[in-house]
Write a structure and sequence with these properties.
The complex is a heterodimer.
Chain A lengths: L6 H9 L7 H22 L2 E8 L2 E8 L1 H20 L6 H18 L4 H20 L4 H32 L12 H13 L7 H6 L5 H22 L6 H18 L3 H22 L2 H32 L15 H14 L6 H15 L3 H27 L13 H19 L2 H5 L12 H23 L10 E2 L3 H5 L1 H39 L11 H19 L2
Antiparallel strand pairs in A: 1-2
Helix pairs in contact in A: 1-2, 1-4, 2-3, 3-4, 3-9, 3-12, 3-16, 4-5, 4-9, 5-6, 5-9, 6-7, 7-9, 9-11, 9-12, 10-11, 10-15, 11-12, 11-14, 11-15, 12-13, 12-14, 12-16, 13-15, 13-16, 14-16, 15-18
Chain B lengths: L14 H26 L18 H24 E2 L6
The chains are: A mainly alpha, B mainly alpha.
């Protein structure tokens, strides 16, 4: 393949061919690009390429090492699966922007310096919003605007951080940064927005559920995991990430329990999964970073699978509200099975991807004596069992029969879900290939009797809890509703404040305009008294009189100054 | 809601079978707790203990059960504060 070429650029370049193709050629193209990217990645081997001098700064377009390779690998796999899932789409705008978005996320992972990272970082923001807008509804348009503002803000903050960092160190190489400097703090904030840290998270729950059926699947993979990669690169062992991650694992699950839009439930659940990875980065040991990378890998698979199954339901039924669904196993049995595989995988049942990855982070927490983080993660694991493990499949495919009868999902969707379900279980049964590409050497065996039994105890008693709550009719019913989250602050009071401020500025401006006009008016009227038509200063005088006046003035001056 | 008559009987449509599932879950839960009883006498398997409280028999099971019920009950209360109409932001 092409020496030193960043694999992401293959997808970006290929995207520009999309508008010139149609039908089966375009389908072939969208499937071929992730494969070509993957071939490029593995033919490169490890190393750095693409060094240029840019205004005295050292650009490094391509860097493949143990950390970037595992993220790049799963990005390519997820891209290929997403392309199969969206083979039925005949919307050049969506396919074009999706490939640009995926390519820029992959490009960012393999960026060796922060300027290249920044360029791809912003490109992911701008290209991805079209996957929201492609829904072509008023809601999607507004959510997309909010999403874009926040995403671009993250880029601007990143740029500010890079400038500070360059001033302090004289280098733009993208390596360990840490929070000991102001620049480090600023860059962490930029990464934190994309990683959906608490209070910075609402763009995700806001925009992802408003995107298209295929758009949400694609969005769910890249932006946030790119942020996890950058955190793992620049902030391993940063203590503050442990409490941040712990809060992330815990608070979204309360919202996930209440939420009615099942793709929004999955967005909250995605937030919770990111929490585990952020804790892993915060612990920062080899085991923890391996766990974070492995968890990102497995998580992308089962999260895509869940979003794909819910996308298929939305595609067929036209709704994704839990209050309107139910009993769909009768008409979409295969989608139901794939959804359950994804659900068991995210809940981390033994023999699934979640089991062999999440446990590495928990073991790392235990090894470092982090009791509270460990207990919070265990609590969050029970919570995952509720909202993603049980709620999503239960209210869609079982619960009461909604009477909806539809066709099974299209063949391409079933194929994409089938491959992903196979990989979810494949990794769980045989984790060695995954462990082999992790950043550090793995000395971890997930299938000890103790681990399997304790995990089954946790999960099965969670199932029992659900069964009890349903049996005694305590489980809260699904209701059509909006649940207030932190975005309330900028969607209500801040919006009102902005509107009031705008009105106030308008009023002041009107006043300035009116007063100014009045003053000028008065000046004109006053000058009219002396300079107006026929007034003293406007009269014409004979040259004789004028010379007489000048002579008089000249005489006075002479007398006064030349005595 | 009216069940559309698609001419098929599904096993899950019968409430008795839902009861069967409930009891099956109960039995499985009891079964999975048993190894911890043996573990008390160091039979069959050892837990990899990191923390003292893991020695409590079926610690994980009880922790999961309590977490889950607590989570749902707290979330239910949060609804009183957080829930608005579907078109609240529109």
């Amino acid at each position: 393949m092409i020496e030193g070429l960043n694999p992401g650029l293959i997808l970006i370049a290929g995207a520009f061919l999309v508008p010139f193709t149609r039908g089966i050629v375009r389908q072939g193209l969208t499937l071929a690009l992730p494969v070509l990217g993957m071939i490029q990645l593995y033919s490169l081997g490890m190393g750095n390429w693409g060094h240029y001098d840019f205004l005295g700064m050292q650009i490094e377009l391509t860097r493949v090492d143990n950390l970037s390779r595992v993220f790049g690998t799963i990005f390519h796999i997820a891209a290929f699966i997403a392309m199969i899932y969206s083979l039925h789409v005949k919307d050049a705008m969506q396919q074009f922007t999706a490939l640009i978005y995926i390519g820029s996320a992959i490009g960012a992972v393999f960026a060796g310096d922060m300027i290249t990272l920044f360029a791809f970082w912003e490109l992911t923001a701008i290209s991805s919003v079209f996957l929201v807008w492609a829904r072509r509804t008023e809601r999607a348009y507004r959510a997309g605007i909010r999403y874009l503002i926040i995403q671009v803000t993250s880029g601007v903050i990143l740029m500010a951080g890079i400038i500070l960092w360059y001033q302090a160190t004289g280098s733009i190489a993208f390596n360990f940064i840490g929070v000991s400097t102001l620049a480090g703090g600023v860059i962490l904030l930029a990464f934190g927005i994309k990683a959906a840290f608490p209070f910075l998270h609402n763009w995700m729950q806001d925009a992802y559920p408003e995107a298209t059926v295929t758009g949400t699947v694609i969005l769910s993979t890249f932006t946030t995991k790119l942020a996890i990669y950058t955190l793992a690169r620049a902030y391993p062992g940063t203590d503050i990430l442990i409490p941040i991650g712990a809060v992330m694992t815990a608070f979204p699950i309360f919202f996930a329990v209440l939420e009615n839009d099942l793709r929004r439930v999955l967005a909250y659940s995605l937030n919770n999964q990111l929490g585990f990875m952020v804790i892993g980065v915060g612990i920062g040991t080899e085991m923890a970073i391996n766990g974070t990378a492995a968890h990102a890998f497995a998580h992308i698979l089962y999260k895509s699978l869940l979003f794909m199954s819910m996308g298929a339901v939305l595609f067929r039924t036209g709704t994704i509200k839990a209050s309107e669904l139910g009993g769909l196993y009768k008409s979409m049995p295969l989608t139901a099975v794939f959804c359950i595989v994804g659900a068991m995988s995210i809940a981390a049942f033994p023999l699934t991807g979640g089991f062999v990855s999440k446990s590495m982070i928990q073991t790392a927490a235990a090894d470092n004596g982090l009791v509270i983080a460990w207990l919070v993660m265990l609590f969050a694991s029970a919570g995952v069992m509720d909202h993603s493990g049980i709620k999503v499949p239960f209210f869609t495919f079982f619960a009461h029969d909604s009477g909806i009868r539809v066709k099974e999902a299209p063949v391409n969707m079933l194929l994409a879900m089938g491959i992903t379900a196979f990989l979810c279980i494949g990794i769980g049964v045989y984790p060695d290939p995954l462990y082999a590409i992790l950043p550090f050497k793995v000395d971890y065996h997930p299938y000890s009797a103790g681990h399997v039994i304790t995990q089954l105890q946790l999960l099965l008693f969670s199932v029992l809890a659900f069964a009890l709550l349903v049996r005694f009719k305590i489980y809260p019913p699904e209701l059509r509703s909006t649940n207030l989250d932190f975005d309330w602050f900028y969607r209500k009071p801040l919006k009102a404040l902005a509107i009031t401020t705008g009105r106030l500025i308008g009023k002041v401006w009107d006043w300035v305009g009116a007063t100014g006009t009045a003053i000028i008016d008065r000046i004109i009227r006053l000058s009219d008294i002396t300079h107006g038509d026929g007034r003293l200063m406007a009269r014409s005088v004979s040259s004789g009189a004028a010379i007489s006046v000048i002579l008089v003035i000249f005489g006075i001056v002479t007398v006064l100054f030349y005595r | 809601m009216n069940q559309p008559n698609d001419g098929k009987k599904y096993w899950l449509d019968d409430p008795k079978n839902i009861d069967k599932i409930f009891y099956a879950v109960l039995i499985v839960c009891i079964a999975i707790s048993i190894p911890d009883i043996f573990a008390l006498f160091d039979l069959f398997y050892h837990k990899h203990l990191e923390f003292q409280f893991e020695e409590i028999p079926n610690f994980y099971g009880f922790y999961g059960l309590i977490s889950y019920i607590g989570l749902v009950l707290i979330a239910k209360q949060l609804r009183k504060v957080l829930m608005r109409d579907e078109d609240y932001y529109d």
